[in-house]
From TrEMBL:
Gene name linked to the record: crr2
Single GO biological process annotation from the record: RNA modification
Name of the protein described by the UniProt record: Chlororespiratory reduction 2
PROSITE patterns, per the entry: PPR
Keywords tagged on the record: Repeat, Transit peptide
Organism listed in the record: Pelargonium australe
Record InterPro entries: DYW_dom, E_motif, PPR_At4g14850-like_plant, PPR_rpt, TPR-like_helical_dom_sf
């Protein structure tokens, strides 16, 4: 699994401000000498500030009237010491003298229990207090959201709206984040839209923090259009707003738009330079498009802005170079980094994996452990994926077994899918099926999809039908599953079944994802669709491809027209195959790049068998190095051979 930056998901503690949502009482000045302190309140406060919580608690038992400030510092000290037992002790004192009914202190207690991962105690504080100010409501919203109890937050929010308490800017931020603290659903998206309407009705649309959060949340629900609409209407934008929208595009399959918005940001903003978060998303967009030259420009910008010491940026750079086909540059960035975290190791392991260098990926995995870095679930996903691409079945099985035995980690659906893919590609379908049947968790779309993909490689109709029965239930709107099964039927000459599936697709209003490829020439990205007759370069490119195809036929090339799922004559099938997007992109590269310069193409789907054969022959007869990255891996064509060894 390639290392990518996750889309906006469940909120993290750093996104919340504990102090911003509650008022501060005036600070009292204290003497630096405890012997001169006139009362025990001042002594307790002094001890708290000195980090001596235990002694402060001893003095507390002798003070009949602790002040609000005293209790506040005691609560903050419990957080600093990460001591739940001391926090409970302070809470008991508050309850004994009735101070737990002070809204300010109740807010502090809720925040304390949230920080100490005791959400039940936080909820008890909220339930007991009679005077609930907006600060108390915000505190419990924040605490429950951090604990992943988003639905409970939304229930409480409805309850608050039935009172006279008015939401403030922190309320909207917390309840929006609550919508992404649970698994995405249509009902939750509906709730986001309701909150959005509430924000507009109450005149908060000028609050940049709220609107930026809204962009993040819409992005998490894959509602790119809604996010863009919110962003476009923002009267004021800061670097966080720009970064959120760029990330929205990058994380939702719109890398072109991400790069375009970044260029717009650089032109429009004078006082807000891109930060590390911005650069991670932009590098991710370059990686998605294999835009090497633009990636190099960004690398230079990162060096000038001194962002090259920030680990997420370094990891994104390694991933970008790996996905742009310059593995050696990614390795260089990795080697120059002194402190390496697991994410950086994963980036390089994944890069070697998608290039088919399975043994290198395994060696890196072992080096990571030897360097004292514990593998994560992503680490195992990356190294198992590398084994799959390289056909290292036994090594993959040993690594999979080591998850539980050596590292105490239970496999997720992704790891099971990797194993099914590993065994399936190697035509060990019985073992792959056994993995599915013996899973300790319910097989999901990832696992059944991996089994279906293996069936396509080896044309196993019976097992493919079994996988699709489950996939059609789990993913009824995923056209790709129908297309894969139709492809398998076509390989088996079961054209009646192909026709039935096509009708099923049409009846359900589903459409196959069209093949699309990209190539970067002189820092400009060019996009091609399969049989793209509206492309202004189509006639020129098709003429070149026809000429090359004719010449290669004389030397033994036979077009693989069986990849066309239509009952047409061979000539029409050849025309369709010749118009595949990756062929058009390669032809464009041959015309517009210098001889000796590698041609780098990215495709959004799996490379078909005919395009694979065609690229091998082109690399030989045109004496050009061709790199094509499909949805699964890199294919490095040179002198008539491919780095995958025809195993993909």
């Amino acid at each position: 699994a390639p290392q990518i930056i996750k889309p906006p998901s469940s909120p993290t503690r750093r996104l919340f401000s504990t102090s911003a949502s509650s008022p501060k009482p005036p600070l009292c000045s204290l003497s630096s000498n405890p012997s001169t302190l006139s009362n025990k309140n001042q002594l307790i406060q002094y001890l708290c500030k000195q980090g001596n919580l235990k002694q402060a608690l001893q003095v507390l038992s002798q003070e009949p009237n602790p002040t609000q400030r005293t209790y506040e510092l005691l609560i903050l000290s419990c957080i600093d010491r990460n001591s739940l037992s001391d926090g409970l002790r302070v809470h008991r004192h508050l309850s004994d003298d009735g101070s737990d009914q002070d809204p300010f202190l109740a807010t502090k207690l809720i925040n304390m229990y949230s920080e100490l991962d005791s959400i039940n105690d936080a909820r008890k504080v909220f339930d007991k207090i009679r005077q609930r100010t907006i600060f108390v409501w915000n505190a419990i919203f924040r605490a429950l959201t951090l604990a992943g109890e988003g639905l409970e937050v939304l229930g409480l929010y409805r309850q608050m709206n039935r009172t006279e308490i008015q939401s403030d800017r922190f309320t909207y931020t917390f309840v929006l984040k609550a919508c992404v603290a649970s698994e995405a659903s249509t009902e939750l998206l509906k709730k986001v839209k309701e909150i959005h309407a509430h924000i507009l009705r109450n005149g908060f649309e000028s609050q940049v923090h709220i609107m930026t959060t809204l962009v993040d949340v819409y992005s998490w629900f894959w509602c790119v259009g809604y996010a863009a609409s919110v962003f476009d209407k923002m009267p004021v934008r800061n670097v966080v707003s720009w970064s959120a929208m760029i990330a929205c595009y990058a994380n939702n399959g719109k890398p072109f738009e991400a790069l375009e918005l970044f260029r717009e940001m650089m032109l429009e903003t004078n006082d807000s330079f891109p930060n590390s978060v911005t650069m991670v998303s932009v590098l991710q967009a370059c990686a998605a498009l294999a835009a090497l030259e633009q990636g190099k420009v960004l690398h230079g910008f990162i060096l000038r802005r001194r962002l090259d010491s920030i680990l997420p940026v370094i990891s994104a750079l390694v991933t970008m170079y790996g996905r742009c086909g310059k593995l050696e540059l990614g390795q260089r960035v990795f080697d120059q980094t002194k402190e390496k975290d697991v994410v950086l190791w994963n980036s390089l392991i994944s890069s070697y994996g998608i290039h088919g260098f399975g043994n290198n990926a395994i060696q890196l995995f072992k080096e990571m452990i030897d360097n004292g870095v514990s593998p994560s679930h992503v680490s195992f996903g990356s190294v198992l994926g590398a084994c799959s691409h390289a056909g290292l079945v036994e090594e993959g099985k040993m690594l999979f077994e080591s998850m539980v035995k050596e590292h105490g980690m239970y496999p997720t659906a992704h790891h099971y899918a990797c194993m099914v893919d590993l065994l399936g590609r190697a035509n060990r379908l019985d073992e792959a099926t056994k993995i599915v049947e013996e899973m300790r968790i319910e097989p999901g779309p990832l696992v059944w999809g991996a089994l279906l993909g293996s069936c396509r490689i080896h044309c196993n109709v019976e097992l493919a039908e079994r996988a699709c029965r489950r996939l059609f239930e789990l993913e009824p709107t995923n056209a790709g599953n129908y297309v894969l099964l139709a492809d398998i039927y076509a390989q088996a000459d079961m054209w009646r079944e192909v026709k039935r599936l096509k009708k099923l697709l049409k009846d359900r209003g589903l459409q196959k994802v069209p093949g699309r490829s990209w190539i970067e020439i002189e820092r400009k990205l060019h996009s091609f669709m399969s049989v793209d007759e509206f492309n202004p370069h189509y006639e020129q490119l098709h003429a070149l491809l026809f000429k090359l195809s004719t010449e290669m036929k004389e030397k033994g090339y036979v077009p693989r027209t069986d990849v066309v799922l239509y009952k047409l004559d061979d000539e029409e099938k050849e025309r369709i195959v010749l118009g595949h997007s990756e062929k058009l992109a390669v032809a464009f590269g041959l015309i517009n790049s210098s001889h000796g310069e590698p041609i780098r193409v990215t495709k959004n789907l799996r490379l078909c068998e005919d395009c694979h054969t065609f690229a091998k022959l082109i690399s030989k007869f045109a004496e050009r190095e061709i790199l094509i990255r499909d949805v699964n891996r890199y294919h490095h064509f040179q002198n008539g051979a491919c780095s995958c060894g025809d195993y993909w």
